[in-house]
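Subject: for your reference before the review

Hello V.,

The reviewers asked for a structural picture of the protein, and I figured it would be easier to keep everything in one thread rather than splitting it across files. Below is the amino acid sequence we used in the manuscript, unchanged from the supplementary table.
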Amino acid sequence: MPIDLGQVDWLYVAVLAVFALVANFVANLLSFNRRGLAAVLAAALFAAIFVFWTYYPHGLPLPTSITDRKSPVTAIVPAAPVIPQRPSNPVTDITSPPGTSR
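And here is what came back from the structure prediction:
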């Protein structure tokens, strides 16, 4: 399965489902059971509730975004210090080899 269900924030999913349910219920009440108008109102109400929940600083301890959580799979490993390596060639002068001309 391409989706790792262990990584899903189920509380966040449940909160969004409740928002959609409330938006749909209120939209049906306001539209007097006209389906097209109810769908448009439900989408607008859900967007308003979602923006309020995600961006308004209400201070509730419930999740506000799925990007707040860090994946337990990825860990930050400090890089080992880079030590310059000495060349394996013991020649230290920069002269041309014998038998070659410049």
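For the response letter, the relevant points are probably these. The CA atoms of residues 34 and 94 lie 89 Å apart. The chain is about 40% helix and 0% strand.

Happy to draft the paragraph if you're swamped.

O.
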